[in-house]
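Memo to structure team: turn this sequence into structure tokens by end of day. - J.P.
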Amino acid sequence: MTTLAFDVYGTLIDTQGVSVTLEKFLGEKASAFSRAWRDKQLEYSFRRGLMQNYENFSVCTRDALDYTCALFNSALNQAEKNELMEAYQMLPAFEDVKEGLALAKKSGFRLFAFSNGSSDAVDTLLTRAGIREAFIDVVSVDEIRSFKPNPGAYCHFLRRACALGSDTWLISSNPFDVIGALSAGLHAAWVKRSSQALFDPWGIEPTVTVSSLLHLPPEILKRQESAKGLHDGH
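Reply from structure team:
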């Protein structure tokens, strides 16, 4: 049976949703602040993974918030920072997510959430977004004290999900995650919701690219049928 590993932040959950809370404190700077915060959050996780100086994703998020406050010269007090961190646990799902996940389940796929966030944080986030019940389980890289795209993270997922790489698809809007999964021997679908989104020109292409999760199941099924046809032809 085919297993789907759904990235959470930026794929299922809209990290820009924190802009609503940021607008209270920063006004028109909120959107730019949110993007810078997200970029620094990822950078800090990558650096900690490479350095093997692990702190969980919430710590990376908090440290990135402190950095971004300094970058924008924004004197947010501790209570305001705490409110923003709480808002990060109440981010909304993208509009296509609930229906897309339901369609994937109906198509017979095994669904897991697979995240750099800790299991408790992701479980809370997905529950508040109303999509936790779609998944068999939440698999977190916190369990191996590293971050995607470390190849060990994808191996950890396969062990936890009792799945083979040849039967597993990583689903992500984040190119670094797609490339990481492909490099580790999984299939990968890039969710390109914006026409402005760019994929890294590394010569490693997604197995499929979709603009919405609604298009994902038929694309995977079509790819599998094509592969089966080629195999039968031999």
